[in-house]
Specification:
By secondary structure, this protein is mainly α. The protein is built from nine helices and two strands; from the N terminus they run αααββαααααα.
């Protein structure tokens, strides 16, 4: 476990939620690795809290599928499985295609300007080679597209899936060789929405998700080889 793991105080949240958010972020960003054990006493000492909020956080993480309970071993960070990856991306592709098609119809001039700026900010973020910064810029860009649909149910579904998607997105973004492809795809999304070209927009999004699946699987294969 990284020595950087620490609770970030928030006066507006109960301690159990602060601990949960801290552990959750560490898992999503890969700071806590798949298969790593979550030992209550160790975590409590490390984070300077009692075991109760640790236990409650682990329970919530298990409900999210980020932690699994192993008989006689206790809690550990869930593995990133190809099956789960494929399931998540299949759903994401359908939702993202619908979102960009609706964006072609409904995105306002102001939102188009925001999207163009987000594309530029994402490209600038890739120069930092900081996966956390790049992932944040990527999320912000896609959020503009989804919000422009004005479809509250779609927005809710995408937000629910985003919690699971972030972990895979981070794996993808760690591969710096993919950054120029992401920049090109984002610009293509902007251009297709600008031209209200639903067919091209949908094709770009499908390719965008397919490329991510292929790259993440390759990244996971490399990581498994490295750990052998």
């Amino acid at each position: 476990m990284s020595d950087n793991l620490q609770v970030k105080a928030d006066e507006f949240l109960p301690l159990r939620d602060v601990v949960f958010n801290t552990l959750r972020q560490a898992i999503l960003t890969g700071e806590m690795k798949p298969g790593e054990r979550l030992m209550e006493i160790h975590l409590a000492n490390k984070l300077g809290v009692s075991r109760t909020p640790i236990r409650e956080a682990i329970r919530k993480l298990e409900l999210e599928g980020l932690v699994i309970m192993i008989p006689r071993r206790g809690a550990e960070v869930a593995q990133i499985t190809w099956k789960n990856l494929k399931d998540v991306l299949e759903v994401r592709k359908v939702l993202d295609v619908l979102a960009i098609e609706l964006a072609c119809e409904r995105m306002t001039r102001d939102e188009l300007a925001q999207l163009k700026a987000a594309c530029e900010e994402f490209e600038a973020a890739t120069v930092t080679q900081d996966a956390t910064v790049i992932a944040k810029a990527d999320v912000a860009l896609h959020d503009i597209i989804v919000a422009s649909t004005r479809n509250d149910r779609l927005i809710q579904l995408v937000n629910n899936l985003a919690e699971q998607m972030y972990r895979y997105r981070f794996e993808y973004i760690k591969d710096m060789s993919q950054h120029h492809i992401l920049v090109e795809e984002h610009n293509a999304m902007y251009q297709s929405i600008l031209q209200k070209d639903k067919e091209t927009a949908a094709a770009v999004v499908r390719k965008h998700v397919d490329n991510q699946e292929e790259a993440i699987i390759k990244q996971l294969q490399l990581e498994r080889v490295d750990t052998k």
